[in-house]
Amino acid sequence: MTYLLFLVGLLGLFFGGEYLVRGASSIARRFGISPLVIGLTIVGFGTSAPEMLVSVNAALAGQPAIAIGNVLGSNIANILLILGVSAVIAPLIIPACQLARDLAFMFLATGAIWVMLLDGMVTRLEGGLLILGLAVFLYMAFSAGSVPQEVDALETSVPKSALMTVGGLVLLVIGAHFLVDSASTIARTFGISEAVIGLTIVAVGTSLPELATSVIAAFRRQTEIAVGNVVGSNIFNIFGILGVTALIAPIPSEARFAMIDMPWVAGTAIGLSVLAVWLGGLPRIAGVVLLAAYGGYLALMG
């Protein structure tokens, strides 16, 4: 039964990602919104729903390590694994100038949470500051995100596109839930520790919607959605998820998060920026480098 749920989860991710990319792309064209902005907001935030559910539930259940580890592990996986796989499938060439503002916000979010973790607690006040950062990001993204677009008369209608987008998100969340639960059960039968499960299986599992969406976007040559999905998700994971979680209940933090995991989170953000500027995007060789780095991360966690 566990393996059947694993298969159901995979199917949910595939079809959910397909509908989400198609629906979101159509909405972007209909309203003259840049596909990058759609990827950064609707797609990026929507695919972070599993991280939100896991982190809030973990905080309420008195498991702060899972709440924080889930977000940090997901941000690492988003860049190294998801963009790595996507770039290997199809080069993600996008001018660095288009990403400058959004990468800056990702750095700001990363630096802010690192400072907050240093004293061992993310307080309600700090959670409010994180939410404020999210509001500023959304305002700037949408205020600068309109582009003139030619709309094809045969373009999918807005209601149908919205239904595809929402339906895709629902399938992604359900698929991720089944995959995380079944994979965790399988891992425990092989004697893998809870800590490693939290930092890897749970973190990667809640990032599966981002993986499915970015991979499908890469196949469809929707480069801006593939990249925007990951950058937007990383911003939302910190500003939105940890912000909301801290407002609900202050989050105590183990020293290892600031000392061990945050350097990886910051390093992957810097690495992505360097590759994007140096290579003019993420060609296949960059994807290979990112995947190799993620392999090294998993080896260290094991």
Strands, helices and their partners?
Layout (H helix, E strand, L loop, with lengths): L1 H30 L3 H12 L2 H12 L3 H26 L6 H23 L2 E2 L1 H20 L14 H32 L4 H13 L1 H12 L3 H26 L2 E2 L2 H25 L4 H18 L1
Antiparallel strand pairs: 1-2
Helix pairs in contact: 1-2, 1-7, 1-9, 2-10, 3-4, 3-10, 4-8, 4-9, 4-10, 4-11, 4-12, 5-6, 5-10, 5-11, 6-10, 7-8, 9-10
Q: Which features characterize this protein?
A:
12 helices, 302 residues, 2 strands, single chain, A middle domain of Talin 1
Describe the fold and architecture.
By secondary structure, the protein is mostly helical. The chain has a single domain (2-146, 154-301), classed as Up-down Bundle (A middle domain of Talin 1). It has twelve helices and two strands. It has a two-stranded antiparallel sheet. α5 runs antiparallel to α6 (124-143), α5 packs parallel to α10 and α9 runs antiparallel to α10. The model is unreliable at 150-154 (pLDDT under 50).
